[in-house]
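Handout, page 2. Input:
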Amino acid sequence: MTDDELKALVAGLAVAQDRTEALVAEIAAQQAKTDAQLAETDAQLARTDAQLAGTDAKLDRLAAMYGGVGNNQGLVAEEFYYNSLKADPVLDGMRFDFVDRNVTRSRAGLEDEFDLLLVNGRAVFVVEVKYKAHEKDLGRLLGEKAPNFRRLFPEHTRRGQRFALAAFHIHDGLKRAALEQGVSVLQRKGDVIETLAA
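Output:
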């Protein structure tokens, strides 16, 4: 290799070295810019997470204060039927001595709650209250609540045990099915309740 070729090679290497350094500097600048954008994105995500956490906390507080709409409607229906029956404790032409609300009992690993119990010397009425009654409510009353009541309240075995479904809304097919299965139906009628005896 001649001196001129060597000089040309060294000069070419120097130019390539300058280009490489310029490229590395450009990559470093782009990397710094990308890092800055990622840092801003992370900061924005952190702000969004904080806002979401605040919103979740507000929603939790509101839910605790007001409960679910379905729960509130159910409580309204329970209060209506309890107050009505407390004022005039008569079902299916029978007058009752006691009207109890939200009675819970536990025995031998079995626990259940009963919305309303009406008791006199001859009979006990177990009333399941719903805002809007569905077929599953009738099935649950007869399939779970009735057997559980008999197991949990043996002191009522000598009394006639009756069951009722009370609701602000109950469609005609469900009403017929309940009556056919011996379940009385309580419906709101204006400011009073109407009882259809089974």
